[in-house]
Amino acid sequence: MVEVGDPAPDFTAPLANGDIVPFTLSEHLDEAPLVLAFFPGAFTSVCTTELCTFEERMGVFEDMGATVYGISVDSPFALNEFREQEDLGFGLVSDHQKVVIDRYDVRDSFDDLGYYGLAQRSVFVVDDDGTITYKWTAEHPGQEPDYEAVEAAAEETA
Fold first, then answer.
1. What is the CATH number of domain 12-17+30-157?
2. Which of 1, 37, 62, 157 is deepest in the core (most CB within 10 A)?
């Protein structure tokens, strides 16, 4: 289990940012604090609300020099379409191979729906040394993060 104070597990995965490019976490520490917002699935109600709320608050994160990335197991093609439809200005990491959710220990399933291996809604803040300074995980799929707490953690990390 990844905890505050631990090194952030490094990974390389496709980044949907309008294009599709490789993204390696350790190569982006100069953009820290990094806010890694794991979400179960694009085009779903709570996930759309969550990511649109991060987009609405981007000015706050940008003012403190923080960078936000969403992460889900959706394909990079679906994530680019989601970004476009929701007018999201930040990149979305495609963990379609489910490596990142396992490294961060946030693999979740909706057993009652027969849907397995998606990201548990969670948020990590990573500093420029690659250390996790904040962690939050949802207790149930419909729970959104405390956005003010994420902003405060990013500001403390900046």
1. 3.40.30.10
2. 37
